[in-house]
Amino acid sequence: MTATHAGGGFNPPEPTQKGGPDYGRFLETMRALQDHARAADAPDEVFSRAADALQDVCDLLAPFDSDEWSSPSGRRLDLPMRGNLLAVPMKLGRTEDGRLRGWARFGRFHLGRNGAAHGGAIGLLFDSVLGTASWLLTGGPYQRTAYLHINYRNIVPIDKELQVEAWISRTEGRKIFVGTALRDGDTVLADGEALFVVLKPGQP
Length: 204
Fold this sequence. Notes:
The chain folds into two domains: about 15-75, no CATH class; about 85-200, Thiol Ester Dehydrase, Chain A (Roll), CATH 3.10.129.10. The longest helix is centred in the middle third of the chain and has 20 residues, at about 120-140. The chain starts with about 20 loop residues before the first helix and ends in a 6-residue tail after the last strand. By secondary structure, it is of the alpha+beta class. Helix content is about 25%, strand content about 30%. A hairpin with a 2-residue loop joins β7 (about 175-185) and β8 (about 185-200). The mean pLDDT is about 95.
């Protein structure tokens, strides 16, 4: 039976140290693997060996599959992105002017075409950044994304540390409007706005 968590259908992650001291290294190696998988132009036999090695890793991990409340993924608060492999690598901090600022970096795994990050990966980054801002800057309870609007203004490069910021534009009852911008120095690469809605008790 699944345990009941605070927040009804929207259950907060419970901090854990599961995975031990090497869990962060495990995730970084997985990210490196994703980049190499997109970049590799290897002989056929190398891909065959890699497939065999990866199958061994899958076989090693498969007996330990668990639900989201048991896995350390998304619950390691000591790791970037809480140890969530899906998230675009980033780091944010609250500033004195009431915003979040930090950096983000798209890898080869996030490549769209011609050196540009995939637009969907930018959306993934913005949803993470805006969601963090909506929660952290309002101190509010659990929220869900109602909409996310993105303006793609310039090519977003991969393999480069970029600057990202987010701020609260306004609030209207349960509605929280949040803005964001992604820059490379003085150049705005993309910006956007999202609406987050504070959930009612027990609302999924």
